[in-house]
């Protein structure tokens, strides 16, 4: 082949080689791009799955926390709300431990007080009652009850009135008195006077009990359901103590 013809063919071969290189490079770039897209997609779904797991765990935590602190609003609260509540958890736990300790002390006092252990106390719902066998003035009876961590009994509803009356055999003092303010009957334990069970013509009119110091109330069991009477606080009768067992649980 003549030399001139050989020289004419060489540029075409070079062009083809260069063109093929461009194709190869473009293919490699496309393959790399596809690979990168696939890897990004895989990473995205991995992160998405982790996010779903995090969301699930967060909702579980939020739900448990809402129940623990009795705050339904936390169920829809933001992560910041939950984080803030979590920061309060140590303080809440410390407070709960203090309350637990206080209640344990109260229970210990209730069940280990020598005077109570050796006396006929009766449990009724959230209170304990002591029905005496001896007799004292109203003042001495209140002092006795106070020494036991109690007071002369308050009567706050029909059920309690019936319970106390059913346990009595003789006239007994209860905690109702008007000695602090004439004509204003109040319970010695501070309870609000919500029900009254005075017998007929009771309590005595103010003139009568001013003259005879009839500032204290008693239950006379023989008078059936409406069996309260007032009398001189200095007279001696049996008595009923009442200790509140409601610890606010």
Task: Give an overview in words.
- The protein has 249 residues and is an alpha+beta fold.
- It folds into 2 domains: 3-110; 120-244, Mannose-Binding Protein A, Chain A (Roll), CATH 3.10.100.10.
- It has 6 helices and 8 strands.
- Strands 1, 2, 3, 4, 5, 6, 7 and 8 form an 8-stranded mixed beta sheet that branches.
- Strand 1 (121-124) and strand 2 (127-131) form a beta hairpin.
- It is rod-shaped and about 130 Å long.
- The mean pLDDT is 77.
Report the end-to-end length measured between terminal Cα atoms: 112 Å
Strand content: 5-15%
- Alpha-beta classification: alpha+beta
- Helix fraction, binned, reads 40-55%
Which fold name is given in CATH as the topology of the largest domain? Mannose-Binding Protein A, Chain A
Number of domains: 2
The arrangement of helices and strands along the chain is HHHEEHEHEEHEEE
What is the 3D shape? rod-shaped
CATH level 4 superfamily of the largest domain: Mannose-Binding Protein A, subunit A
Low-confidence stretches: none
Please, what is the average pLDDT? Answer: 77
Q: Report the count of strand segments.
A: 8
- Taking all Cα atoms into account, the compactness measure Rg is 44 Å
Biggest beta sheet attributes: 8 strands, mixed
What is the CATH architecture annotation of the largest domain? Roll
**Helical stretch tally:** 6
CATH class value of the largest domain: Alpha Beta
Question: Strands, helices and their partners?
Answer:
Elements lengths: L2 H66 L10 H34 L1 H4 L3 E4 L2 E5 L6 H10 L3 E2 L5 H10 L4 E6 L8 E2 L18 H7 L3 E4 L8 E4 L6 E7 L5
Parallel strand pairs: 4-8
Antiparallel strand pairs: 1-2, 2-8, 3-8, 4-5, 4-6, 6-7
């Amino acid at each position: 082949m003549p030399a001139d013809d050989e020289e004419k063919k060489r540029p075409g071969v070079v062009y083809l080689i260069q063109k093929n290189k461009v194709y190869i490079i473009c293919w490699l770039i496309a393959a790399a791009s596809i690979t990168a897209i696939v890897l990004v997609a895989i990473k995205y779904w991995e992160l998405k799955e982790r996010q779903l797991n995090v969301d699930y765990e967060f909702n579980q935590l939020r739900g448990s926390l809402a129940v623990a602190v009795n705050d339904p609003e936390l169920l829809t609260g933001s992560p910041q709300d939950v984080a803030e509540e979590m920061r309060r958890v140590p303080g809440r736990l410390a407070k709960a431990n203090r309350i637990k300790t206080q209640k344990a002390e109260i229970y210990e006092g209730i069940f280990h007080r020598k005077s109570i252990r050796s006396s006929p106390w009766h449990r009724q719902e959230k209170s304990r009652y002591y029905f005496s066998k001896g007799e004292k003035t109203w003042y001495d009876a209140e002092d006795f009850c106070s020494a036991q961590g109690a007071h002369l009994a308050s009567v706050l509803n029909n059920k309690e009135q019936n319970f106390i009356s059913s346990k009595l055999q003789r006239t007994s003092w209860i905690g109702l008195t008007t000695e602090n303010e004439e004509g204003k009957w109040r319970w010695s334990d501070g309870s609000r006077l919500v029900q009254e069970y005075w017998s007929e013509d009771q309590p005595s009119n103010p003139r009568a009990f001013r003259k005879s110091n009839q500032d204290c109330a008693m239950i006379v069991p023989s008078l059936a359901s409406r069996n309260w009477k007032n009398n001189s606080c200095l007279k001696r009768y049996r008595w009923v103590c009442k200790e509140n067992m409601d610890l606010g649980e």
